[in-house]
Design goal:
162 residues; 7 strands; alpha+beta; two-stranded antiparallel ribbon
Length: 162
Amino acid sequence: MKNLNKSVYVAICVLAVTLGCKQAKVDNDAAPVASQPINTSTSANTVESVSTIKWSDYDNVYNIKSESTDMQKEALWKRFEGQTVTWQGTVSEFSEGMLGGYLISIEMNPDTPTGDIILTLKENQKEKVASLTKGEKISFVGKLKTHGGATLPLLMDEGEIK
């Protein structure tokens, strides 16, 4: 029954992504909200910069136990949105997307009953998806798209499995 609930949850999240359920875009020219800018470093494998944002930086603000206000969450998201990150997590589900592409539900916290992240992969990731198994630990790269919250996962796109 738990696997069915996870599958239904992932399907709902995928449907929300497919239907374009997302926040309004933030103007890229806006000044950063916090006093410290996010550092980025260039990876030899990608043209884009990879941010130094850690999962814990995100999770401390957006998890169910967070005491951050909605205003604080939105201010931080203005700094996080669109950043490319490299993290590690555990595969909980994976499937082909409704409009093509591939999706992976990734657990980052062991006590979370469902995936913490829904990662939409780049088209060239088909072979890597085919070799995945549930419960497998993976390293992945993706762009932060829409923040989750107490019950919804973080949505990321342009994903690659390392």
